[in-house]
Amino acid sequence: MLFVCSRNAGRSQLAAALLAHRAHRAQGHVTVSSAGTHPAPVIEPVVTQVLTEAGVPSAAAAFPKPLTDEVVQAADIVITMGCGDACPVVAGRRYLDWPVADPEGAPIAVVRTIRDAIDAHITELLDSLPRTA
After folding, report:
1. What residues contact 11, with CB distance under 8 A and at least 6 apart?
2. Among 34, 43, 124, which Cα is nearest to 87's?
3. What is the pTM of this model?
């Protein structure tokens, strides 16, 4: 699963960390990555803070990564979050677009709301995936 936003410093990092945490807790196997069309130098500190508040291990080793054709080709599902037409389309991939606000420069209360909105999308996504025995 690949989460994509423009800077890979907020929404896509939130989504990747939340999904990886939930899949790990459920002992499921989901490969999660994130990327940005114009990666920032670092992840927004407020993003790390709201993940920690939610009990999600901080992605201390996480960093913004560039979106490449190879990254898209490695994913079965690509979830875009505000990167528009800049995201490459590869045949055979499932694409979803989640209209989620950008946390850049937002107050902590707003970023918490964004985190919770992304988590709701993740719940819907997990419910839509086929169950494995």
Report:
1. 3, 5, 81, 82, 98, 100, 102, 103, 114, 118
2. 34
3. 0.90
